[in-house]
Design goal:
3 strands, alpha+beta, 108 residues, 23% strand, three-stranded antiparallel beta sheet
Length: 108
């Protein structure tokens, strides 16, 4: 940073209607005297949430669509619950479920 002083970079994403509130908080609680702002656009895929039967029991999955492709994302809370129930890592359950959803979809 300036004059080789140590610093921390703080990045915040917020909606436009919250900018003033966030700025007020930063100026009140931090030692900064300036804020750089950038407007960011976001593209969001259409999605739906379904509950599918898996070998671990029912699990909610987000199905996102882009052009002719579909992407499957197991719901975090369901993966967490299953991983605790089966004493397996979150990562392992997540990938097993994702693989199961893809196989189920390709067989429809």
């Amino acid at each position: 940073m300036k004059k080789n002083r140590p610093a921390i970079k703080l990045s915040i994403l917020c909606s436009r209607n919250k900018i003033k509130e966030v700025e007020d908080f930063i100026f009140k609680h931090l030692s900064t005297i300036g804020i750089r702002k950038h407007v960011v656009e976001r593209t969001i895929l259409t999605r739906e949430v379904k509950t599918l039967d898996t070998r671990f029991g029912p699990c909610r999955v987000k199905i996102a669509t882009h052009n002719d492709s579909q992407y499957f994302y197991p719901e975090y809370d369901d993966v967490k619950q299953i991983s605790l129930e089966y004493d397996l890592s979150f990562h392992e359950i997540y990938h097993q479920l994702k693989h199961e959803f893809i196989n189920l979809h390709s067989n429809l």
